[in-house]
Amino acid sequence: MEHRPLGRTGIKVSPLCLGAMMFGAWGNPDHDDAAAIIHRALDAGINFVDTADVYSAGESETIVGKALASVDRSRVVLATKVGSPMGADPNARGASRRWITAACEQSLRRLKTDHIDLYQVHRPDETVDVDETLGALTDLVRAGKIRAFGSSTFPAEQLVAAQWVAQRRGRERFQTEQPPYSILVRGIEGHVLPVAQEYGMGVVTWSPLAGGWLSGRFGVGKENTSERDKRMPRRPGAGGRFDLTTPANQRKLEIVTQLAALAAEAGLTLVELALAFVLEHPAVSAAIVGPRTRDQLEAQLAAPEIRLDPAVLDRIDEIVPPGVDVNPEDVAWQPPALRDAALRRR
Q1: Which pLDDT score, from 0 to 100, does residue 243 have?
Q2: Where is the NADP-dependent oxidoreductase domain (predicted)?
Q3: What class has domain 4-213+275-313+320-331?
Q4: Helix/strand/coil (H, E, C) string of 307-341?
Q5: Is residue 199 annotated as part of the catalytic site, yes or no?
Q6: Within 10 Å of residue 72's Cβ, how many Cβ atoms?
């Protein structure tokens, strides 16, 4: 499997990154089976593993730590994230110096490692000055506890602001961004991806299969409610993404049916088409795949070797135009002024 530069970190990563969100209570609670999936991914040439403290309340990090204890840690690029709520404590979340420092120590213990290769702020935190966040992360780099740090699901304007603050205040900078990106979620093409390229940031995309919509299980005439019901209770806030009664999701069913036909014409599975599309973008360092089972992983391993014909890419653009998010709920973060009506009417 080829390797790509992770921005300007000097780190080389496989184009597929193994995401561990589905390991633990949110997906596959069998620790041994999850470890076997991790080992299979490594054997297949994937050298990049991504998790987060919030996934199954730390259980995912624990599974990853156990699995990596039996391999050569120096050959694995290990990433995790901080910022999402870890329980009821109002201070056990966000991007403050207090929480980042404490959360990093907890992640290191669960992961059974002395350093994290890529530490990412899971979502923007409007309550904290970005200089405080960058300062805390810079200190972790200089202490040797993390090698590089990045952001996840940040809008383009906050990426630019953070780069400016890092330069003016002498901080280390966000070197990567982890945004949602798939054929159904293309909004980042207009702003986030060009900004990442401008600043030499690595891009590690999440949900290239649009949360399962591009797995082949959905489409007109085969609405898989069992798959929808399986995901909804485990993934907080995911319900709206699988509500098949909404107009946006009805439109997604129509699109997925067209994409499945296009994939068949190209001699590909829908999974392969979806992953190859994401990997075609020159800004993308790696696409995160989040298998719950070994079969799901196996279905995705061929994607890095596929190159889509320009005619196929043009047809995808006709089905879902560049820069379009078919269902805005899939973006997973909105500015406070859009979430809180009071902020729009002051």
Answers
A1: 81
A2: 15-320
A3: alpha beta
A4: CCCHHHHHHHHHHCCCCCECCHHHHCCCCHHHHCH
A5: no
A6: 8
Residues 6+ apart with CB under 8 A from 105: none
CA distance 83 to 52: 9
Place of tokens 């207009």: 190
Structure tokens at 287: 């696409």
Catalytic one of 55, 119, 181, 199: 55
Residue 152 has φ and ψ, to the nearest 5°, of -140, 125
Q: Tell me, yes or no, if the pTM score tops 0.85.
A: yes
Q: How far apart are the first and last CA of the chain?
A: 54
Q: Domain limits of the chain?
A: 4-213+275-313+320-331
**Number of neighbouring beta carbons within 10 Å of residue 233:** 10
Q: Which long-range contacts (CB under 8 A, 24 or more apart) does 308-312 make?
A: 308/266, 308/273, 308/276, 308/277, 308/280, 309/266, 312/262, 312/266, 312/273
Using a 10 angstrom Cβ sphere, with 0-12 exposed, 13-18 middle and 19 or more buried, the burial of residue 185 is buried
Q: pLDDT tens for residues 249-304?
A: 999 999 999 999 999 999 999 999 999 999 999 999 999 999 999 999 999 999 99
CA atoms within 13 A on the CB side of 11: 28
Cα dist. 317→22, 203, 256, 331 in Å? 30, 21, 13, 19
Task: Report CA Rg, the chain.
Answer: 19
